[in-house]
Design a protein that fits this description.
homotetramer, 8 helices, 370 residues
Chain lengths: 370, 370, 370, 370
């Protein structure tokens, strides 16, 4: 049951890379919420392959077909199912997977988990393609949140060792988030972005790949949402973010860097802001104290590993003979998954925050009414 | 419902720092598993306060009283409830908390979340004391796992900027884990440990605090456990680890460092090991591919922030008047929570792995029989 | 999140009566299980409308399209999504529903629950048509169970006051269950069945409807499955059975009749049966003691109300004016839903038992291997 | 994990009949709700043994000790743990249970489920004594509901074949519910109640037992609460009610009787009531349409089997030898569990409704504020 996530809002992802379709069911949406399908399609296009030199050549328009749960442009409140067909499936690219597992892929673990019965074509259910359904769910969540003045946006914070500029989350606005989302390569500093793109081109030419870091920010979350311990914002968001393929780490606010600081450096002093609200002078906590929102921006960083699929030969073993061998992946793949993972991280954070709000304010409460 | 965690094994934590007791219910344990309560008490003692210069002066023996679920030294399979009394509660140390929130504490968010009705004494349910119940649950989980030759151990990887030696997880043995756990200050390099203790002493004298990093390793997990997406090992472990107070980040294997690597550097080649099993030459994946165990050691790193409570005056606001003010915390607190958090991290990982095994092999399956 | 059910096996139903499709995702199936889609289609045909004089004239072949989770005729272990298109949708039959609610329908409660945003056409997500997805899931579950020699079958026990013959569940065989399932009108006594059909014809001519009782039996469940209290077989099965529209009561074994008995009459004596297994002389407990299977047949009775939709005028109110009025339903409907509900009850019981077995034996345990 | 129930409000029951204590954790309560512990104790006293000729001679005052979650007489919002000590445990009454299972008890199924490791003393976790924790949770839920003018009350509808008078649920008031709850033998017709008591005395003298039916009514639930399918009121309440030991059937409104009616007889016409609210002329639906509350009284009937424990010898088998034998239970037991089960049913319904309201309106929403 690992492809279902959520408490009050549950999402159920399904599909295999080279099966008929991937998709998602969202169960527990508040009713009457406007959903703009064109906007959702634009959001999905940010994740779609084939748009640039750094992404896989697989051609998919990733058009969601709505099977249920929308009526006259608004959520019914009943389960919303969206299906995205796999049009450019090429199963012939993916043979021998069961015999010679690719390093750092799920070929071997999938075989062990499913006793060899899982669909091996294109990674099957392990494929990054499953995030198309997650993105659709996130597009819906983002739209619902934005009607309540909650904005979620992410950017590339690093590709390899190249860092985007550091921003002070206490100063970020919704306009900043919208501006970076509109960019083809979503960084604050376009100069750094150019260097990142160059690096990606370089590793592509080398038949190699590279990882990176995505930073996601959510503005406008009311204070007091979440629970201590396992129902907290960190536990909730990390449980969905760590479900995204290739994610190696999730941290909040100053994250692992806070472990190097003194308390006097790390603590965020309380203050009353210009419009009379309680805030903090700094935001190393990433908007979360004791698991609960404090009204400051939610800040989360997600570490993404380099794409495991390489055009170079790699050492592996033949599981039938037990002999060492090499594997070369001739399938289509991204030299760096990070740019396409940006909307996926946004989607996961938006879904997580919407679920937390539904726990706090219920699916029928006045919070959701215009 | 944020204090309940788990799928097949559910733990329910309860208690407030200065109420009658803290405790835990474990529901879903496999029956017939030996539980050595003395060993559990020893494990809890690793977390207990008052043992050293770097921990709070609060005196608690943290003795668990079993109310249910154990019979003749073995789990019944029915809910196991353990209660740990709060003997050295001193509610007078914690006044004004509702009016002047301490920076980076849950005073403000707790007030917002619970409309001011939560127990403010000693942080109430937000207190680190709640991890005593988690540790008891973890002690039980560790014992059950060790009967199946699965060993979980953690160590301090860093205090502030001082790092313990780097170890190759492909070479670590259960004896290594046991040896470090037996240490009063659990690091591999005692020389680095001495420097860490000195730093903690220093910040204590300054009325300050410092954070650190804990690395936890699990040996012996069979390959093929976990699910893709949200039921994976990463999503599962991070959802319990991010529930521990003061945790700012959770990463697996090479973690955020993998984001800086090329794929050719980060990938773990498959091999057949000396005893004929499938393994990998390196373990940057931390024993997890596609969310599922690959049979290599599980490696997780947890970033801990510096204790928010300081003896220094800190800037805050008076929530009633809206005026700036300062707050000084005269309560007992640790200058560095990291050493006491080591068994807490072990506990969380052990509980998480036990739950994953129960999902895979069921609560009644032959996996649990001798 | 009310359309998702299950613990280890989760099913997620979606769809509206007159939207593009209804369907289901099954998440948590054991891998490698054979699924015969023709057999599943035959099972769905037992529920499909338009087959007889007593069912709605809506024409639907209810053909499931598999989007994921099946590969080479076996379950992958990853989510299995099946979609059933709505081909004969006629939304024009269902106007004024929002203004004048039909008695004992969900028109009014749906409006209150969803603030008027739910899809009102044909009952939307409240339609009995949603049970097509449940039946598909049940078809899969039944096939998996039958490979483990667990057989689930149901029959019409009563239509109105006309009862089928009483059978002793201790004597029933899998062949008996298969024989009754193969009947067009699934009763043990065809003579009583004829009377039931006559009654249904009569109420149809009167523009009225009639209810009935379905009895479902499961043979071959191993002893020891289930939990005390809320994880028991009764709690589990009733939570899915009471989710079926029109179900008014669920009872086990002798059910409400046992409330009239003395303990000496109601208790089931233990014995060793002919093949040396522990059994009971009678089965008033319906195969369940303390929530847990005892190895005897599981017996559950489900009370179904008469179809709320009538061709007669019925008293209602105009919600806009507050004035009394009458409502006549001109839409297609069944005079008696009971015959088509028989496979739905079988499906629900099969899904429930499969989930209980997955809790007990895990999704990867040897229980599921050939 | 079968002893945890709930979605937004989770209750975790623990304990064994002859262990140190039984108890409950309530996780997810809205904060700031008044809890009168004396009132809770009075409610628990309605379930406690030893109060009358028809209940077990076990002497327990069933005094709840609060370990957490209450502060200054109100819920904190954090987990509320209550423990009830077992003072009159007499394990010596319960030997040979593992070898010779009592008919229609959980002795055999418990042994199978837990591989013989469960606590056999007094039924262990299967004991009716576990309902003390459920009653405490229900006492809290009832108090919270009554502050929102939602009243839950139950009565004995039948003992054996003797029926209490039939009441029209559309006419019942909160005062009626309070009056019947205040009775030592909770029936509407005291004359019928006397006959019931006589029957209970009779079966006690015969060393036998007798079952009965409990009807529970909830007034004041707002319309529009619950979900279609598995999140409905019926699915929710039946999943907790069928968790109560000895419950054989759960039905709503007219229940199984509706299966005998025509639609024209069973349907509840809508009307505008005297105070201008939408209501129904009759209430055969038990206040529920399509799984969702319609604002009319919730009506649920619960069938209880006769106590399995008898003073008469009963046929059983010796599991070690496989030989037939007889078993006589010399332990304390009730000749009729129905009177003591009345508050248990009320508790379960109150908890179920509170959870449904928390799903609808959230744990922090204005619904819970004064």
């Amino acid at each position: 049951m690992g492809s279902i996530w959520g408490k009050q809002l549950k999402i159920s992802l399904f599909g295999e890379s080279h099966g008929p379709a991937v998709g998602v069911v969202l169960d527990g949406l508040p009713p009457g919420q406007k959903v703009d399908l064109e906007e959702a399609a634009s959001f999905l296009a940010r994740r779609a392959p084939g748009r640039s030199s750094w992404s896989t050549a697989r051609k998919e328009t990733d058009e969601p077909h709505i099977l249920s749960g929308l009526y006259r442009g608004r959520t019914c409140g009943t389960p919303l199912c969206a299906v995205i067909e796999n049009k450019d499936a090429r199963p012939e690219d993916y043979r021998d997977r069961e015999r010679i597992p690719r390093p750092s892929h799920a070929d071997y673990t999938g075989k062990m988990r499913y006793h060899g019965f899982n669909d091996p074509r294109g990674g099957g259910h392990f494929s990054g393609r499953l995030t198309a359904g997650l993105c659709f769910a996130g597009a819906v969540a983002k739209q619902i949140l934005s009607e309540r003045n909650i904005f979620v946006g992410a950017r590339i914070a690093a590709i390899g060792e190249i860092l985007d500029q550091v921003l002070d989350s206490t100063q970020i606005t919704g306009a900043d988030l919208a501006a970076v989302a509109a960019k083809r390569f979503p960084v604050f500093s376009d100069e750094q972005g150019r260097k990142m793109v160059e690096l990606i081109e370089l590793v592509r030419e080398e038949g190699d790949s590279v990882g990176g870091i995505i930073e996601c920010i959510a503005l406008g979350m009311p204070a007091g949402v979440g629970d201590p311990l396992f129902g907290g914002v960190k536990a909730t968001l990390s449980s969905i973010l760590h479900g995204i393929p290739a994610v190696m780490g999730v941290s909040f606010g100053a994250g692992f860097a806070s472990s190097k600081l003194r308390g006097s450096e790390n603590n965020d002093s309380f203050l009353i802001d210009a419009v009379g609200r309680v805030g903090t002078a700094t935001n190393r906590a990433g908007g979360i104290n004791g698991g609960i929102t404090n009204g400051m921006p939610i800040v989360v960083n997600v570490g993404i590993k380099p794409t495991a699929t390489l055009s170079q030969p790699q050492a592996s073993v033949d599981l039938r003979t037990g002999e060492p061998t090499t594997v070369v992946d001739t399938g289509r793949h991204d030299p760096c998954i990070v740019p396409r993972a940006v909307p996926v991280v946004e989607a996961a954070v938006a879904i997580g925050l919407l679920d937390l709000l539904l726990v706090a304010f219920g699916v029928q409460g006045p919070f959701w009414l215009d």
